[in-house]
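Service request form, structural biology core

Requester: graduate student, group of Dr. S.
Request type: structure prediction, single chain
Budget code: on file
Notes: please return the result as structure tokens.

Sequence provided:
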Amino acid sequence: MKIVWVTSESTPYAKTGGLADVSAALPEALATRGHQISVILPYYAQQTGKLNLTFDGFHAMLGVPFGPETLWAQIRIKKLRENLTCYFIEFNRFFDRSTLYDWNGSEYPDNAKRFIFFSRAAMQAILALGLEPDILHLNDWHSALCSVYLKSPLYSGFPAFRNTRSVMTIHNIGYQGIYDKGNLYWTGLGWEYFNYMCLEFYDRINLLKGGILCADIVSTVSRTYAEEILSPEYGFSLDSALRHCAYRGRLRGITNGINTKEWNPATDSRLPARYSAKNLKGKAVCKAALQKRFELPERPEVPLFGILSRLAYQKGLDVFASCLEDMLYHDDFQFVLVGAGDPGLQKHFQYLASKYPQRLAVFIGYTNDIDSHLLEAGSDIFIMPSRYEPCGLNQMYSMRYGTLPLVRHTGGLADTVRNYSPDAPGKSTGFVFWDLNTESLRNTIRWAADIFRDSPSDILAMRKNAMRMDFSWDHTASLYEGLYHDAHQ
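Core staff response, request fulfilled:
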């Protein structure tokens, strides 16, 4: 199939989160399976430009209708392999910024214009490049408007789109692209699109909502998350639109994969010792190295809990903060916490680290690749107490490294982690709790620590089982192939 993948970010060209990783790995996996893949993304002059890329061609003078005028952009072309090409939309007025979406915590005031322009430019690029896609795959609110355009008279009559079907993937429904309705002016669409079955959202425009309701199929990044977002609790006011999709059989959940070559303890050059499910001796070396790196006592018998996360409400780190000091005072555990975000949480964790330096190490910021891989390899248990988690990647990284995730039963965490059972430890891969409150999280951490100390054979069986789980992108790509075929039914 000919697939055009439209995204606002992709590793290594520009990244703020997991969307970039997916936008690199899934197109690559689909190309490996024989599909013709074109990736369209912005050319961010201060991010992509730093990479000093060599381009294989340029398409100058791409005309992009924008309100009453036509703006002129350039397309930079980079061929990654015979059937995988990246097309960068270069327009410095919108994409020459120090960050992708915001400045000092506040989004750019012209973000609506920036990504209305990007969506229109993507449609124009498809025409200019003669791509004629079978599938137009859109990602989050930044490119959601493309599915509205595809159904509109602006593009539906072009032969290039005659056989095109759209897939809208929601990576995180908490971000929707909600703006003043006056921004409809820049889209080129008439006011007939400002209605509750398209872009209208409480007298504003909602780009993700329009993308959802106009797409042929809507997907999200795990099966459980696809079920959760049908409820008011998780749907962020789009649950009604999503129930409409689900009722028509147009909502699917497909769990993301991970890069199993990059995240492989048997070949990972970032680690002080390598290991595998057949021989786990190197994991103890990594634990000692992690303790040394973060200036904790090197004690192999103590359960070491790792956390690598944004310090945000979504991640449940406020609940973890509320139960942490009790454990630091009463329990002989060690914690390594790496992340940044909420200033209050940062100060709280730093205060506790200064008070209990033998049991808690805190690094505010984001580690380099060496430290993140060492954190996954050296921890015994990895904590992810998320309020909601569309998919999550760290629990899969952890399992690859024989580190047992301790997670709340939500979204992709529920789909990927098998709760410990003393009757079948060889079928378990981690520890799961359901209620997000201080008592439940604290009890689960203590439960996991008890199993670590009292049942080492169960821990070993769980580690080996976790390391053998298949989280490859090839498996995920095969599921998307089925979704693409369904979009054409």
